[in-house]
Design a protein that fits this description.
This protein is α/β, with parallel strands linked by helices and 315 residues long. The protein is built from twelve helices and eight strands. Helix 4 links the parallel strand 4 and strand 5. Helix 2 crosses helix 3, helix 2 runs antiparallel to helix 9 and helix 10 crosses helix 11. It starts with 8 loop residues before the first strand and ends with a helix.
C-alpha cells in the first residue's frame, strides 16, 4: 500500500467509546494519562467523553465522562500540549442550550451520532452547534444497512449543509474491505465536508477496513487504546499509530500508547473484558445489535442454527 495522505487525521475515542465497559467511571489520573500518551503518539484529536446533562442521564448511574463538564476536561488536559479535544452526543440526548460557546471551552469538535430516521434533525442540530463556534461532525450510525436511496438522500442533505465532517460508522462491525469503497467514495464527492470512518471489530475486520478506507481517501479515522469499547471493541490506537509511524516517524510514536496500555489497560481488560467473542461475531455477520445475539447465546436454550435463523429474520 502506498503512503497514507499526510493530511490523514486520527481521532482517539478511548474515554468516550471505552466508557461502555465501565459506565464512564474512569478516574482522572487515567484520563490524563490517555490524553498525554495519545498526544505524544501523534493523535490529532482526542474525544474525551460524551456530552450529557442530568436531563437525560442520572449522575448517580454514570461516571463523570458521560457528562464531561468543562471543569473536568480542563483539569485532565491542563499543561499538556497536543491533540485537539472533542465530545460526542447521541441525537435526542443532547441540547444546544447545554453547550457553551466554543470561545469559553477547550473543546473544539462536537460530534453527534444519529440513525437514518433522524438524519435531517441531527444536521440541523449540528448547524446550530457550529454557529457556537465548534467544528461539527455527523456520525451516521449503522451505515452498512443504508439502501442506495438512503445514501443518496444523505448526500443530498449534506450538500445543502455546512458541516465539517460526516462519518461512516460500522455500528455492527459487519463491513468487509471489499464493501468500503462503495460506502466511502460517494461521500468524498460532497464539497467542503471531510469524511471519517469508525470501525468496529466484531469480525476482526477493523484494521483491514481502515486501511481500505485510507486507500480510498478518507480524511479521518477513529481508534481506541487497546481496542477498548462496547462489545468487540474498535480499531486499536496502537496498531494504527504503529502503521503510520512506519511511514512518518517524525509525527508518530507508538511507545507512549504502549506504556499506557501496560500501566492501565491490561488490568482494566481483566476487570471489564471486551473484544472478539461469538455473540459479536454473529452480530457482525447478520448486521444487528449485539445485545440481541448475546441474549440468545447466554440463554443457553438455542442451538447456533436456531440463533442463525432468528438473526436472519431480524436482518
Amino acid at each position: 500500500m502506498s503512503s497514507p495522505d499526510g493530511d490523514l487525521k486520527v481521532l482517539d475515542c478511548t474515554i468516550r467509546d471505552g466508557g461502555y465497559v465501565n459506565n464512564w467511571r474512569f478516574d482522572k489520573k487515567l484520563v490524563r494519562a490517555v490524553y498525554r500518551a495519545t498526544s505524544k503518539a501523534g493523535v490529532d484529536i482526542v474525544e474525551i467523553g460524551f456530552h450529557g446533562t442530568e436531563k437525560y442521564f442520572n449522575r448517580e448511574e454514570y461516571g463523570i465522562w458521560r457528562f464531561s463538564d468543562e471543569e473536568a476536561v480542563r483539569e485532565v488536559t491542563a499543561g499538556i500540549g497536543g491533540a485537539k479535544l472533542a465530545l460526542m452526543g447521541d441525537f435526542g440526548k443532547i441540547d444546544v442550550a447545554d453547550i457553551k460557546n466554543a470561545k469559553g471551552s477547550v473543546v473544539s469538535l462536537i460530534r453527534v451520532a444519529a440513525h437514518r430516521d433522524n438524519l435531517q434533525p441531527a444536521v440541523k442540530l449540528l448547524e446550530k452547534i457550529k454557529n457556537r463556534g465548534y467544528e461539527v461532525s455527523l456520525n451516521a450510525m449503522g451505515y452498512s444497512n443504508y439502501s442506495r436511496e438512503d445514501q443518496k438522500n444523505l448526500i443530498s442533505m449534506l450538500k445543502k449543509s455546512y458541516l465539517d465532517y460526516v462519518y461512516v460508522v460500522d455500528s455492527y462491525g459487519s463491513i468487509f474491505p471489499n464493501e468500503v469503497k462503495g460506502l466511502i467514495e460517494p461521500l468524498l464527492e460532497i464539497p467542503g465536508i471531510k469524511v471519517g470512518f469508525h470501525a468496529h471489530n466484531s469480525l476482526q475486520m477493523a484494521f483491514a477496513n481502515v486501511l481500505e478506507a485510507v486507500r480510498c481517501g478518507v480524511h479521518i479515522i477513529d481508534s481506541t487504546i487497546y481496542g477498548v469499547g462496547r462489545g468487540a471493541g474498535n480499531l486499536p490506537t496502537e496498531i494504527i499509530i504503529a502503521y503510520l509511524e512506519s511511514f512518518n516517524g517524525n509525527k508518530y510514536n507508538v511507545v507512549p500508547v504502549l506504556n499506557c496500555i501496560s500501566q492501565y489497560f491490561l488490568r482494566m481488560e481483566k476487570e471489564n473484558p471486551w473484544g472478539y467473542q461469538l455473540p459479536y461475531m454473529l452480530s457482525g455477520m447478520y448486521k444487528c445489535h449485539p445485545n440481541y445475539v448475546r441474549a440468545l447465546v447466554e440463554a443457553r436454550e438455542y442451538s447456533i442454527e436456531d440463533i442463525r435463523k432468528a438473526l436472519e429474520i431480524i436482518q
